[in-house]
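note to self: dont lose this again. the chain is below, predicted strucutre after it. 978 aa total, dont forget to put it in the shared folder this time
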Amino acid sequence: MHSLPRRLFGSLIFAIALPCLLHAQYSVSGTVKDTDGEPLIGVSVLVVGTTTGTVTDFDGNFTVNVPDDRNALRLSYTGFVPQTVEVSRGMAPVDITLDEDVANLEQVVVTGLASTIKRSNLANAVSVVSGEELTGVTSQQTVDGALYGKLTGVNIVQTSGAPGGGYAVRLRGVSSLSGNNQPLFIVDGVYISNVELPSGSRNASGANSASEESASNRIADLNPDDIESIEVLKGASAAAIYGTRANAGVVIITTKKGVAGETKVSFNQDLGFNTIIKKVGRRTFTADQVEQEFGGTTPDQIAAGKAARAAFEAAQARGEIFDYEDIIYGEKGFISDSRLRVSGGSDRTNFFVSGSYRDEDGIIKGTGYERFTARLNLTHQINDRLKIQSNTNFVRSSASRSFSGNENEGGLSYGYTLAFTRDYVNLFPDEDGNYPDNPNFSGNPLQTRDQTRNEEDINRVLQGINVNYRLLQQDNQTLNLVLNGGLDFILSKTFVYVPENFQSQRGRQNGFLAEGKNDLFNYNYSAIAVHDYYTDSGINFTTQAGITYINQSADQLLTQSTQLIPLQTNLGQGAAQEIDQTLLNVEEFGYVVQEEVNLYDRVILTGGLRFDKSSLNGDPNKFFTFPRASVAVNLNEFDFWNTSGPIDQFKLRAAYGVTGNSASFGRLFTSLTNNNIGGRGGFTVDGQQGNSTLEPETSSEMEFGTDLGLFDNKVSLTATYYIRDVKDLLYDRSLPTSSGFSNEIRNDLDLRNRGFEFQLGLNPVREDNFYYRTTLNFWFNRSEITRLGVPDGSEGEDIPSFVPPGVAFGLGLGTFYINEGSPITGLWENVDGVPTQTGDTEPDFQFGWNNNFTLFQNLDINFLFHWREGSELLNLTRLLTNLGNTTPREYDDLTGFIEDGSYFRLREAGINYRIPLNSDVIRGLKVGISGRNIFTITDYSSYDPETSVKGGSGLSTNIEVAPFPSSRQFYLHLGFDF
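---
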């Protein structure tokens, strides 16, 4: 009986000791600081070979339990070089210093929908721009405009110089002929709309299409100062995991988050002004020249010449020779940009709150752009397994863009009216406010400026939710479920008004009024399971699989009224009304699987598949497959590598991937349009013939490259060559009228893009009182149409070369022309009646040179040069000024309207000084000056070689017709940290 208690006691001791025997462990503590001795908060401390770890607290301290069979900790922190520290039982607390990761080798980038990878292990040339690089030099109007010259493989062309932007972004060349060439933008997991919303102004001005209304892209709604980083997946090899929407590349934007620790408050105020980059100038005349230029040989022409001479001499005597180009485009538009940020948090909850207000006047009186944004980003760690992130952004903006660009005889576009307006004609209002008619054209530009309206108002909400739940955690593996959801709601209102007494309105529309309401609602969600498995030998596996869903809907309503009652701006006060409404709904669903194998950081293998179906395809239930595969080999990680040499990193990489792009909404079927004949309503067949067999155009890409780091990573080099084949491009082709249709959409065009990208980073000086870093980017792309028409052996006939509908203005002036074996970006003209390529909008190459100096730790000097060589433009502004005899003399000898658009530009420059303060209230004060588009060296004869009249989609770039001129900006900066 006495042995029973002893046996029970022994069993109890064994039960207590068993977990210790099975999982014997010891505790290690320490402190982590940077090289300046400041504690680092949130450093990841991981026991090597396990998933056990912790993070440092507010003071940089940590404590972690280490299994007896482990003896090393790995510490990692964004922006710093990871460090491995050997530990043992009973050792004293350790003090660890992390060095700055100047080469960004440890920076993590996206490799899947729910996974990341160290940059040093990446197999693709993914470009990353930090928030500091984006906005740290000068104030930025829009996100896409801020990327100029900072990325390889990216061609950006401004579609309007009006405040509020308008840009065409091309990643590695053209990817679609009639579809969208703009990349997919994802902000904190939300698939956002970058649509251009027309206002209907074309119906008053005589422009040819909605794309010619100089609308801005809705990426302009984002506050650039909220952005933490931008990752650009330029090709299919990197973007394949995003499937159908990734044919033109993917831009992944991550906004700023709070950091555990003391609450930080910052306020920044920028004050500046806009001014035109370049005036074309006006032709100056003598009385004899006026009679000669505006006269002729017939009696009527002789009389007209003498009348023009008399008017000129009378105006000269009154001192009324005006420079209307300066009067219209000569404003110095005031700019104010105010930004407030508050961030902080605890060990479980972090927050980031921001508000901004930008008020920008244009170089034309009455034009401008206002944007108010508010953001709340919250991260909450509910427990050790569950973390939730919420990102909420509200935007309210308004723009007044007036009238510019292409039109026929509407008399509204400034470029048109200035081309034909003679500077000796007085167009100013009389004492009663009445504007005289323009005797030389159908509109008075001063009346357009002062009495017409072309406005838009935007209310927008972006909401993203991310839930990360750790389903499994063991020493050598974890399983996470990542749920993402996002919505993007846009309510847009547009207003266009041309008074009934306007010169071109009398006897025609007798006043024009249009109001538009665009209601766009997009939402997306995904559920991805990510499994990480770490072997004892050092081989790691990351597996992910899941589903994605995207829904886009839109209700676009445009109501127009003409024959207005005088002075009325009410749609009901017109004798003729028209209502146009477009309803849109698109659904897309996909499956995703991906496997990543990391062999000791030496060889990293990735393979993945995405299966997508879309309501935009002929068969909405058919899944299309988009594969990807890549390999990265870090030669410097192998045992044979000589670690004492000058080479710190030597990586070889190769990647392959396929992406897609579906037809735009409404292209599958032939639609009906309303008509009214003899008082009876009915329907007629629309001019666009539908095609119910459409499938996505696909882009397959092979990419090869190498990354080098030299001399303690003071020199870094990245080189990439790619071949991208776009198959079965969707495109419009005109049909003979006998068919009953004006054009059809086809799916039988192939295109190849080839290019080279090179980046050289130098960080030769890293001293306390002098720090210098420079980056040189060089890139080019070449395109070729490799197939046009039905392949041999198939039913049907080969398609002859053709001018795509709506891309330019015909072979008589210059246009794009689809010809097998030629670049898709070529500009063609009729030469002796034969279509001949005389230019190419694709640059021969582009070069960006970014420089950053820090002197005495407080003075920052930054400047960015951008060189674009080649890239011809179709300059039809000069065609108009030639017709109106207002072209400056120095351009009289130019033949043809296709010109070289090469330029060298000081894109950005800034000087900022951080004033050291010991105040308990104001912890930091920064003052500075900066500029954007400061000077440009170019032979181009018009306003700016960065121009387009056709918006951001399709073959849109490098077609200039009377644009809203581009501007340069200069700023004074004040920044306070509290």
